[in-house]
TrEMBL record:
GO MF, any single term: RNA nuclease activity
Family: Belongs to the HepT RNase toxin family.
Keywords attached to this entry: Hydrolase, Nuclease, Toxin-antitoxin system
Protein name per UniProt: Uncharacterized conserved protein YutE, UPF0331/DUF86 family
Keyword Nuclease attributed: yes
Domain of life: Bacteria
InterPro entries with a match to the protein in the record: HepT-like, HepT-like_sf, Type_VII_TA_RNase
Length: 143
């Protein structure tokens, strides 16, 4: 079967995802020395928001390009990627958690506290893994 996967778009999104990881790692490194710094808080919040958007956009491009079932929402995108073996279960669980947190980052940002971000600073590793899983899937199915 021939697929029409927008690999250029996926590549651009994965580059943005890597930038988000770099910002998360830098804000994590600095948080101890600059406790309560609003710039670090906003940088980490925005990096997490954009990372979740990148995952959603890459997932959508994969689903469209490989003609997978239609998602019913953002969490369903992660479910489909797991079902289609793009990402493993343990990674899917952590990514779902970030996609759920996206709602707070986008709609309830005025209620966020620096303490809530603590858990998500540790997401950098799964975001890098996501990039690897996507690349592996593309390599196995397109090239």
């Amino acid at each position: 079967m021939v697929y029409d996967v927008d690999t250029d778009r996926i590549e651009r999104q994965l580059r943005v995802l890597r930038d988000c990881v770099a910002v998360l790692e830098e804000t994590k490194r600095r948080r101890g020395e600059q406790e309560g710094d609003p710039v670090l808080f906003f940088a980490a919040s925005r990096a997490l928001h954009l990372a979740s958007e990148c995952i959603i956009d890459v997932g959508t491009a994969m689903i469209d390009g490989f003609i997978m079932r239609d998602p019913g929402g953002y969490l369903d995108i992660v479910d489909i990627l797991e079902d289609e073996r793009v990402i493993p279960k343990e990674g899917a669980d952590r990514i779902r958690d970030l996609v759920r947190f996206r709602d707070r980052l986008v709609r309830r940002y005025d209620e966020l506290s620096p303490g809530e971000l603590e858990k998500y600073w540790e997401q950098a590793e799964v975001l890098l893994s996501f990039e690897g899983w996507v690349r592996d899937y593309l390599r196995q199915n397109l090239f």
